[in-house]
Specification:
The protein is built from 27 helices and 14 strands. The chain has 641 residues and is of the alpha/beta class. Strands 1, 2, 3, 4, 5, 6, 7, 8 and 9 form a nine-stranded mixed β-sheet that branches. A three-stranded antiparallel β-sheet has the order 10-12-11. A two-stranded antiparallel ribbon has the order 13-14. The protein is globular. InterPro entries: GPAT/DHAPAT, GPAT/DHAPAT_C, GPAT/DHAPAT_LPLAT, Plipid/glycerol_acylTrfase. It is found in: Membrane. Pathway: Phospholipid metabolism. GO terms for molecular function: glycerol-3-phosphate O-acyltransferase activity; glycerone-phosphate O-acyltransferase activity.
């Protein structure tokens, strides 16, 4: 289970290390009173011994800050309204936004979540060394918690874990949609959530209130600040392109010299089985997302009868912003202006924040704990007609060896026979795959009556996309070697520079689909070459890259891994070149390209099996890639792919 991460992001970042061990925090909960646990003495150590700040005091500090007063006067001059009126607007915004953390509510959640987690999950495993590092970091400098985001469960789980280990509870950035949930919304607010709009537009006052609220909490170290760098849950279970707004806000106090340092803590939350798996697939296929509501939450109680396996939560090494910024950002320029005057970030600052965001997400990926099912899902998606159970078992063992050689963090049961590991995974994911007559195939929902070809296609796509959400969890391990395998297949010759040109094209094209750090094309290419040589799949005599005698299975698997993305991009490209009208808007694009993909799949089912092109995620990413490049060039090379 222990391995060394394969990614070295550079100076100031955590160096490669052996992964920590895990402790199952539910084990004690199963053997002791949940009520005693919820009511136990809770006395977390705070930043430099600071006294916790009551919610009303915090709001007063924000409303009286120089920065907010400056913006209020600006807005007053621009709108012609009196400063007192703008001040009242700011107060209303803050009242709507602010958390009201209360220990009594936290204790209620501690009790309720203990009951729920013991029903839903077999284990909730946490790396204790990471907890110890976090405990030390909280005492030294302001801390920002940056978890991955795959489920609604994430922020509840984070607070539950910190309460369990007697650590300071975080204040959590949450979307406004949660605030609309009767009773539950206020419970979340009283457990540390503060609510923000999904977008601010040009609302200068709202941005000023929001940013000053977050920075006040950070500067004073009242509590760790928690937010999701990806901005929203990933419906595909691939890491999403990071959003920079909140990261800019929490780093700015360091640039302005208001704090000595800020610790960023990447946290990886890995689910063996995702609660929302079928819901996500339907959302990607155009079914509207259910509105967050208390009644919807109550209806979801049926999930308590299901088994969702294990959760692993890995607290990464705290990353010092001070160390990262050394030699990259000239902080002296911030002394040229009064601190309370808002300024647009300088180009070098924007570049630094962007680079930091990408590398934090890479660290999240490296510390994701992968279960055997993600390997099995990867194989089943390359064999949609099904596989013999014995063949699936054999290939899963082969893929396990490949993943471990690429430093994947794989949780494979010790001393368990492979056949038992595979059968246990199939039992847990019986809603996605079944065994019949010694053959394993994906499960397609049984229709209640006659179905149209379109409905049959939709049901099949739900099955494929649900399974793909697990394959996507291992893509970061294989992505760079897979792009090299496709580049070797596509390049006009085996010359290294020819292969690199194709790799570079793929790298740029997939930069919305995967986390590829800006400027790392050459480094990623060299890493891919190293990994394929290491596992004996290719050799590099002089300036060539050629497949070895034993490399065919590896390169074939990697080509198959990226085939859904390549076929999907081809379909989108075809639509834009053959069908799209001149005045096509983004709102019209998604249903139009989905309809086109439906027709292509219905006609060419035998040749084209890319059900993933029906996903709105792929459609948006493909469009972004084509708009970023030169369409004729992209079209020509896609045809070759």
């Amino acid at each position: 289970k222990a391995c060394t991460p394969n990614y070295s992001p550079g100076r100031g970042w955590p160096t490669s290390q052996t992964q920590d061990g895990f402790e199952d925090i539910l084990e004690e909960r199963r053997n002791s009173s949940d009520l005693k646990y919820a009511l136990r003495c809770y006395a977390p150590v705070l930043y430099k011994g600071v006294t916790p700040c009551k919610a009303n005091m915090l709001k007063n500090i924000v409303l009286q800050s120089d920065q907010l007063r400056y913006v209020i006067n600006q807005v007053s001059q621009e709108s012609g309204e009196a400063p007192d009126i703008i001040q009242e607007e700011a107060s209303v915004i803050l009242e709507e936004m602010a958390h009201r953390l209360q220990i009594s509510t936290v204790r209620f959640f501690a009790f309720a979540l203990s009951k729920a987690f013991k029903t839903l999950f077999q284990h909730v495993c946490v790396n204790e060394e990471g907890i110890q590092r976090l405990q030390q970091a909280i005492q030294e400098h302001p801390v920002v918690l940056l978890p991955s985001h795959r489920s609604y469960m994430d922020f509840l789980l984070m607070s539950y874990i910190l309460y369990t280990y007697d650590l300071a509870l975080p204040v959590i950035a949450a979307g406004m949609d949660f605030m609309g949930m009767k009773f539950v919304g206020e419970m979340l607010r009283m457990s540390g959530a503060f609510f923000i709009r999904r977008s601010f537009g040009g609302d200068k006052l709202y941005w000023a209130v929001f940013s000053e609220y977050v920075k006040t909490m950070l500067r004073n170290g009242f509590a760790p600040i928690e937010f999701f760098l990806e901005g929203t849950r990933s419906r595909t279970c691939k890491s999403l392109t990071p959003k920079l707004g909140l990261l800019n806000i929490v780093i700015e106090p360091f640039f302005k010299g208001e704090v000595f340092d800020v610790n960023l803590v990447p946290i990886s939350i890995s689910y063996e089985r995702i609660l929302e798996e079928s819901l996500y697939a339907r959302e990607l296929l155009g079914v509207p997302k259910p509105k967050e509501s208390t009644s919807g939450l109550l209806k979801a109680r049926r999930i308590l009868s299901e088994d969702y396996g294990s959760i692993h939560v890995y607290f990464g090494q705290p990353v010092s912003v001070r160390s990262l910024a050394q030699g990259k950002v000239n902080r002296s320029t911030y002394n040229l202006f009064p601190r309370h005057i808002p300024r647009k970030p300088m180009e070098e600052t924007q570049s630094f924040v962007n680079d930091t965001a990408y590398r934090i997400v890479r660290l999240q990926e490296d510390n994701m704990v992968l279960k055997p099912w993600v390997l099995m899902a990867s194989l089943l998606l390359q064999n949609l007609e099904g596989m013999e159970l014995s063949v699936l078992t054999e290939q899963t063992v082969w893929l396990r060896g490949l993943a471990l050689s690429y430093a994947a963090f794989l949780d494979w049961p010790d001393h368990a026979p492979t056949a038992k590991v595979v059968s246990s995974s199939l039992a847990l994911h019986r809603g996605l795959a079944c065994v019949s007559g010694g053959r394993v195939s994906l499960v397609v929902g049984e229709p209640l009556g006659p179905v149209t070809p379109e409905e049959a296609l939709f049901n099949r796509a739900v099955s494929v996309l649900s399974c793909a959400s697990y394959r996507n969890q291992v893509l970061h391990v294989f992505l760079r070697p897979a792009m090299l395998a496709v580049a070797m297949h596509t390049a006009a010759s085996s010359k290294k520079n020819e292969v690199y040109n194709c790799f570079s094209f793929l790298w740029d094209m997939f930069s919305n689909d995967f986390i590829l750090c800006p400027g790392d094309t050459v480094q990623d290419f060299e890493e891919a070459c190293y990994l394929l040589v290491k596992t004996g799949a290719v050799q590099m005599p002089q300036q060539d890259i050629v497949m070895t005698d034993i490399g065919q299975p590896t390169l074939s698997f990697f080509n198959g891994l990226l085939e859904p993305f390549l076929q999907g991009y081809q379909v989108v490209c075809r639509y834009l070149c053959e069908e799209a009208s001149e005045g096509l808007t983004e709102k019209q694009y998604i249903p139009a390209v989905r309809s086109f993909a439906h027709s292509v799949l219905c006609v060419f089912t035998g040749n084209l099996r890319c059900y993933e092109v029906l996903s709105s995620d792929m459609q948006k990413n493909a469009l972004a890639a084509l708009l970023r490049g030169k369409l004729p060039t992209q079209k020509a090379l896609l045809a070759r792919l």
